[in-house]
TrEMBL record:
Residues spanning the membrane: none
Stored PROSITE patterns: STAS
This protein's name: STAS domain-containing protein
Higher taxonomy: Bacteria, Bacillati, Actinomycetota, Actinomycetes, Micromonosporales
Signal sequence annotation: none
Length: 123
């Protein structure tokens, strides 16, 4: 079971918050919601927040990608944010994270000249 909440557009951004398990029952719903709740030309950025999503399958990944391309066709940018745990890993393994504008994962890598987590400087 999943839930979709849409915040009122603020400035030129509309936030769509998804929660629960995104599976084949989710198909068609995101695009329908985005088309209706995030009107062009008022909204330029559509942010899909996945913070409360616990599971995602291939049909839901396709739904996110389809919504991304539909938004682009209307001159909007759809970005996915706050994917956590297995949801984040599945989107990255599927190879769609960059297309959906997800920030790169934090690797914790320390580069030369940066402070080391233990307080030492790596050189």
């Amino acid at each position: 079971m999943f839930n979709i909440q849409v915040g009122h557009p603020v400035a030129d951004t509309c936030v769509v918050t998804l929660s629960g398990e995104l599976d084949m029952t989710f198909t068609g719903r995101l695009r329908e919601i985005v088309d209706g709740a995030c009107p062009v030309p008022d909204v330029r950025w559509v942010v899909v927040d996945l913070h409360r999503v616990s599971m995602i399958d291939s049909s839901a990944i396709k739904e996110l990608v389809d919504a991304h391309y539909a938004a682009a066709g209307r001159g909007q940018v759809l970005l996915v944010r706050n994917a956590r745990g297995i949801v984040d890993r599945v989107l990255r393994v599927a190879g769609v994270s960059a297309a959906l504008g997800m920030p790169p994962p934090s690797t914790g890598t320390v580069y030369p000249g940066q402070a080391h987590p233990a307080g030492r400087s790596e050189r």
